[in-house]
Amino acid sequence: MGTAPAQLFPEFIVDTLGLDSVIGEVAASLVAAFVVGNIILAFTGVAGPWAKRKITAAFTDRIAVDRIGPYGLLIIPAAAVQLLAKELIIPEGVDRPSWDIAPILLPASALLGFSVIPMGQLGPISLHLADPEVGFALVFAFASIASVSLVMAGYASNNKYSLLGGLRAVAQNLAYEIPLIVTAMSVVIFSGTLQMSGVVGAQTETLVTIAGVSIPSWYALVNPFAFVLFLTANMAEIGRNPFDIPEAPTEIVAGYQTEYSSAYFVLFYLGEFVHIFLGGAILAVTFLGGASGPGPESISFIWFVVKIWGFFLFTQWARAALPRVRIDQLIEIGWKGMLVLSFANLVLTAVIVGVIA
Amino acid sequence: MSLERPDTVDDGGVERTPDELEALLGDLVVDRDDHLNAPAFVIRPDTVQETLRTLKEQAGYDHLSVVSAQEYENRYESIYHLKKYDDPTQEVSIVVPADKDNPVSESAEPVFRTADWHEREAYDLIGIEYDDHPDMRRILLPETWQGHPLSMDYDKDRPQIATLPEHANPLEDHHKDAESDTMFLNIGPHHPATHGVLHLKTVLDGEQVADVEPDIGYLHRSEEQMAQSGTYRHQIMPYPDRWDYISAGLLNEWAYARAAEDLADIEVPEYAQVIRTMGAEMCRIAAHMLALATFALDINGDFTATFMYAINDRERVQNLLEDLTGQRLMFNYFRLGGVVWDLPEPREEFFSKTRDFLDQLPESVEEYHNLITSNEVFQMRTIDTGILPPEVAKNYGATGPVARGSGVDYDLRRDDPYGYYDELDWDVVTEDGCDNFSRLLVRMREVEESAKIIEQCVDLLEDWPEDERNIQANVPRTLRPDDDTEIYRAVEGAKGELGIYIRADGTDKPARFKIRSPCFSNLQTLPEMANGEYIPDVIAALGSLDVVLGEVDR
Fold it and tell me: Does domain B11-131 have CATH number 3.30.300.30?
């Protein structure tokens, strides 16, 4: 294994079509971003109105959508029309334009994160938009813009439940982003680079060979402890059970999104799903060898899809099975537990890598 | 046998004869006016606290079941129905007449906290005012309501028009001033976790609850008045199904049946009692399953699998009830003197279905223990939250799983036996944790006890000789209990002590029909559990109380 980093998607377009100018490069970048964005939005479209319902139904002994189309799949356009056709209610006293910006910012921040994620090969195309040297730091930065959106929505809605939700979102993100990033840093110590392709590339090396099958050195296998830490912090970062307290429907109605309806609600809903997928993508890149998997390199995108959908399934499983923690317990777990463990992990990793290397 | 209660040696255990009680109260007693269920002492309206305190502290009457109020031609009257938690068959009623023109009576609130809401209700519906009451406001009707609907001169045709300035903003006082650092939050009447239309006026200090005040009455349907305008024999029985409508219908029907049968001196055939007992316990399982399901919803969040699993189990028992009664929700199955019809034919099929249900129940309960009670996060959330010490529970008149979760060993099925319970082998479940977790555990264990009862009933019914299957006693077509007989009788409903007070006036309709709702008293304890806790704990405490607003508001 260990192939050279594939050509980036925009460069591929430039080369294939022979667009050798600045305008051409810009156009190619836009087209590439458009394609990648739409892939993710398509995932979301399947996940939100259909897959989520089916998965939850399977966990709870129900049937769920099965009336329209094969396996109820046509509920996707039906739900889209239904959601968008609803009246957009703008409550009195909302603080515009921040009330309007918040629902756009959430999906935008999550989509932005995908710009540096290497999503694997599909035929000759490598679905990877950009590979800056600080890609690893960038993706976390993009992902954390979401908190800004939640605070904006919570504060601008002029609703006490929204405010509580917004405040909870900040408290939660502060408490979990630090352990998340510190744990991710322990991976950087292994890989020695912040470049996405480098982090993924380092994981293709063989860890051990058992009966002729070489096991790649995915960091989940190299450092399972860090993997579990990262997974937990990631669940909190994207606000899923048992850490879904910024929304906590049985406590604060719907948290920051209480006052949103119609298209704005769709945007929030969309943003949350894109965030789950981004969370899955970050997890895949950091700990699960990115898009790599058995089989030819040219279909590695499929492995990437499997991994992020696997993560999505995991979030739904947790949602069906786990109780929600209380806000003070959540903060306590974050600051007193996760932070300490993540620093311990970082120091230990540094020492071990330092001694071995 | 398991039904025997431990001996208590304190003063409360001593049973006093009515004459001894009269001697104890001495000059306080003005007159005797005995009820069918208990001796009743008439006292002056300004000695309520003294009388109740004497009875509570010196004679051990520590349970104020209910305050029922009514208006006569020449006076108003409040009746304090007292019992003992240690032995609810020891009852005494304190009758407090009040002046017709100026109905003022001393409040019992300083002695029994539970009197707070009960007296507010008496004020709201009847019009008696209580001196020394901390918060004499309407409770069920809007603050702007004109007149007292159950009083004699109430004009029901008068339009209830409240002009805008008159309809003062009820929240005006709560609006924060510049210095205040708390936030007022309305939880409900429409909120995902209020289990119906309940309004919690909450004052928050950050995420913590500084004060919470339940505001009820959104589902008030004049159930008492409807019962007062129906005939004993047929027209009242359908209503109890609509009080606690979470499939506890038969338990509610039994409350009315018990009171009316004792009032009219009707003997219920044994066979019917066994069917009643079986049906009632099925209802209890259904009600507790829903309590567990919604509690999981409150703690785990929507889409929790536990909710659907519990609903599935409830569905199974619901099917059995459908077979038995022909209805799924509003059973209307009991009749005075028995039940409306015998078990469904073929009987064997019904028995085998019931046994199938009982056989798989332990497996389900095990699964719930796996899913929720043994989950560490769940324990973190529920253990030591929503604390209700036993003394506080008693002071508020809490009963049912709420009281038993605080270690108060009080269950009318055993302590004041009715139906077929005292012939069967089962246990009263108590837990000492006093927290949300204990209340849940009590319900889960009670489901297993109910299953034991049903199993024994099925055994009995299977072997019942065919020619002795008498489902109804011979009851006159029209019942006219003697004028001025009064009775208060309670059964163990799904949520606790469900009692009915009836005063007969010689006609075929009750002159006063008062419902003692367990949820009404239980809900009063919410501020005790919630103050100082976090918002999620308030939700959990409310869920663990398992209130049904249809029964709170009636």
Answer: no
pLDDT in tens, A119-154: 888 877 888 888 888 888 888 888 888 888 888 888
pLDDT score recorded for residue B234: 87
Q: A244 touching B, CB under 8 A? A: yes
**Residue B174: per-residue pLDDT:** 54
The H helix count followed by the E strand count for chain B is 17, 15
Q: Does the interface ipTM go beyond 0.85?
A: no
Q: Where are the beta strands (DSSP E) in A195-252?
A: 206-210, 213-216
Q: Is B534's Cβ below 8 Å from some Cβ in A?
A: yes
Task: Examine the pLDDT at A166 and tell me if it is beyond 60.
Answer: yes
Residue A2: pLDDT over 50: no
Q: Count helices and strands (H / E) in chain A.
A: 15, 4
Q: Which residues of B144-170 are buried (b: 16+ CB within 10 A; e: fewer)?
A: eeeebbbbeebeeeeeeeeeeeeeeee
CATH of B223-553, one of 1.10.645.10, 1.20.840.10, 3.30.930.10, 1.25.40.10: 1.10.645.10
User: For residue A322, what is the nearest residue in chain B, using CA coordinates?
Assistant: B300
- Residue pLDDT, tens place only, A314-332: 998 888 888 888 888 888 8
Residue carrying structure tokens 């993508």: A281
Are the Cβ atoms of A60 and B191 closer than 8 angstroms?
A: no
**Contact between chains at B534 and A321 (C-beta distance less than 8 A):** no
Please name the member of A62, A253, A323 whose beta carbon is closest to the beta carbon of B300.
Answer: A323
* pLDDT of res. B156: 83
In DSSP terms, B286 is beta-bridged to none
**Do A324 and B300 lie within an 8 Å CB cutoff?**
yes
Contacts of A224 (CB under 8 A, 6+ apart): none
> To the nearest whole angstrom, how far is the Cα of B300 from the nearest Cα of chain A?
4
Nearest to B303 among A242, A248, A319 (CB): A319
What is the identity of the amino acid at B253?
Answer: E
Within-domain flag for A41: yes
* Predicted pLDDT of residue B189: 84
DSSP states of B172-219: GGGS--SS---EEEEE-SS-TTSSSS-EEEEEEETTEEEEEEEE--TT
pLDDT at B1: 40
* pLDDT lower than 50: segments of chain B: 1-10
Contacts across the A-B interface (CB distance below 8 Å): 86
| A323 contacts B381? CB cut-off 8 A | yes
In a domain, A81, yes or no: yes
With CA atoms as reference, report the closest residue to A326 among A260, A223, A251: A251
Measured between CB atoms, does B377 come within 8 Å of chain A?
A: yes
Q: Identify which of A59, A62, A323 has the shortest CB distance to residue B375.
A: A323
Q: Evaluate whether residue A252 is within a structural domain.
A: yes
Q: In chain B, where are the structural domains located?
A: 11-131, 223-553
In the prediction, which pLDDT does B513 show? 92
pLDDT band at A1 (very low <50, low <70, confident <90, very high): very low
Q: Is A158 part of any domain?
A: yes
Among A241-250, A281-290, B363-372, the minimum mean pLDDT is found in: A241-250
Tell me which residue in B299, B309, B372 faces A324 most closely, judged by beta carbons.
B299
Q: Best residue in A161, A250, A329 to probe B by mutation, most B CBs within 10 Å?
A: A250
Number of domains in chain A: 1
Which domain, by its residues, includes A344? 9-356
Cβ within 8 Å, pair A252-B535 = yes
The confidence score (pLDDT) of residue B171 equals 59
Residues of chain B with C-beta less than 8 angstroms from the C-beta of A244:
301
pLDDT at B89: 87
Mutation site, A52, A61, A251, A316, interface B, largest B CB count within 10 A: A251
The answer to whether A300 touches A291, Cβ cutoff 8 Å, is yes
User: Average pLDDT, whole number, for chain B?
Assistant: 86
Residues of B in contact with A159 (CB under 8 A): none
3-state secondary structure at position B360? helix
